[in-house]
Amino acid sequence: PPELEQTLTLLSSHRSVLGYMLLSRGHPVSIIRHAGVVFEGEQGRKYAHAVARIVESVQQGLVEDEVRFMRIRTKRHEIMISPDERYLLAVLHDPSA
């Protein structure tokens, strides 16, 4: 849809965004679309599986609640995850930029 295209273009144009991944919720998780060199090749697959495992673990721990948005901060980056029933959107962000 055009709204999704516009949102993804806006995300990737922000100077602090290093990339994004749109993932399927199936097993195994698959990358539907991505932008940014950090999500290319094997490294992208590693990120995809890590994001899927994190979301699955958190949702299993919150039986009575629904996860709508997650923000994970590491030493260098921040990963923002928006889970949906069918998809996961993960955005890698450089908070120092």
Automatic annotation (TrEMBL):
InterPro entries: Roadblock/LAMTOR2_dom. Pfam families: Robl_LC7. Residues 4-93 form the Roadblock/LAMTOR2 domain. Signal peptide: none annotated. Belongs to the GAMAD family. This is Roadblock/LAMTOR2 domain-containing protein. It comes from Gloeophyllum trabeum (strain ATCC 11539 / FP-39264 / Madison 617).
